[in-house]
């Protein structure tokens, strides 16, 4: 699994763009592009902090980071668009559909059935638009 350790002379923004492309792919680029006309600075923060700083840290691989993110967004229960982006990201970094489904189901224990149900419906929507790659 690739880690995004800081290269000499690489800015947070450059490192963040690289991480965003690898993790979220097209879905991440769409989020950034959609902010261009209302809050371009916020798009920069979104690239620099979560992706350039946090996701690029050593210590957890991208699969583990996406499991944590999918769990958190499912448990929040009010972040369906972000959850869909990260379910897609989970598939991008090698999580299987079954693994993603299990993570979401487990959140019923911590966040209740409504949050888990909404998460499962979000996953169903993403899986329907993304060709299966084993699992």
Please give the largest β-sheet: none
Overall structural class, as computed from helix and strand content, comes to mainly alpha
Order of helices and strands: HHHHHHH
- Uncertain runs are none
What proportion of the residues form beta strands (DSSP E)?
A: under 5%
Any chance you could write out the topology, listing elements then pairs?
Elements: H1 12-23, H2 25-35, H3 40-54, H4 62-76, H5 80-92, H6 97-111, H7 113-129
Helix pairs in contact: 1-2, 1-3, 2-3, 4-5, 4-6, 4-7, 5-7, 6-7
Describe it for me?
The chain has 135 residues and is mainly alpha-helical. Helices cover 73% and strands 0% of the residues. It has 7 helices and no strands. α4 (62-76) runs antiparallel to α5 (80-92), α4 (62-76) packs across α6 and α5 (80-92) packs across α7. It starts with 11 loop residues before the first helix and ends in a 6-residue tail after the last helix. The mean pLDDT is 90.
Keywords:
single chain; 135 residues; mainly alpha; 7 helices; 0% strand
Compact summary:
With 135 residues, the chain is an all-alpha fold.
């Amino acid at each position: 699994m690739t880690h995004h350790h800081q290269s000499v002379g690489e800015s947070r923004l450059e490192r963040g763009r690289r991480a965003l492309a690898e993790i979220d792919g097209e879905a991440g680029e769409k989020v950034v592009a959609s902010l261009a006309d209302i809050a371009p600075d916020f798009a920069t923060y979104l690239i620099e902090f979560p992706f350039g700083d946090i996701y690029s840290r050593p210590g957890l691989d991208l699969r583990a980071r996406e499991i944590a993110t999918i769990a958190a967004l499912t448990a929040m229960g009010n972040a369906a668009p972000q959850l869909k982006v990260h379910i897609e990201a989970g598939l991008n970094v090698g999580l299987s559909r079954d693994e993603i489904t299990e993570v979401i189901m487990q959140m019923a224990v911590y966040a209740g059935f409504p949050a888990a149900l909404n998460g499962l419906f979000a996953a169903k929507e993403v899986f329907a638009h993304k060709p299966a790659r084993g699992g």
